[in-house]
């Protein structure tokens, strides 16, 4: 009976140690994974270099025009020189133009419409690695992984599609989001079609087999 009691105590001790080991192991998390949910996400388009803007000044057709955003992010219009446009919404830019024009026109009313989109460099989606046409794409609201794959012409025969990753800056850190391009493209698995975010970098590695 004494030996049986010792055995039970030893077994209980081992069970406790095993539980502590398992719980301790759970504290070590793998790579940081970003939230891929599209819920409660909103984004206002920001003007970037290479965009084309139609600037309408109400009742003043002579100073209304279409202007490109220069590589330095600025625009030049009649009566307004070197006004910063990159990084602003069209509404914000319209208010800035109104303020600048108010020196020459009484109560100007300005509307800015973006007619060609590129977006700021920091908000473009970049695709590198084994894409048919690696490139940078302007982010558009509601853009998904499938939209990006279509825009770059798909992946090459040498791509390891299910090993691809999205690098995403979120909450001050770089997150890694695993994606399943093979499942999406070859199997039509729409559960692999996740939302994209401004500034995402899609990395498609080469398969070693």
Question: What order do the helices and strands come in, and which of them pair?
Answer:
Elements: H1 2-26, E1 52-57, E2 65-68, E3 74-77, E4 80-84, H2 90-101, E5 110-116, E6 125-129, E7 135-137, H3 145-151, E8 165-170, E9 173-178, H4 181-186, E10 201-204
Parallel strand pairs: 6-10
Antiparallel strand pairs: 1-2, 1-5, 3-4, 6-7, 8-9, 8-10
Question: Percent of residues in beta strands?
Answer: 15-25%
CATH topology of the domain at 124-204: Outer membrane lipoprotein wza fold like
End-to-end distance:
62 Å
H and E string: HEEEEHEEEHEEHE
Major pleated sheet = 5 strands, mixed
* Fraction of residues in helix: 10-25%
Q: What is the approximate shape?
A: elongated
- Please tally the helical runs, counting DSSP H or I stretches of 4 or more residues: 4
Strand order of the largest sheet: 7-6-10-8-9
Q: Decide which structural class fits the backbone.
A: alpha+beta
Total E-strand runs: 10
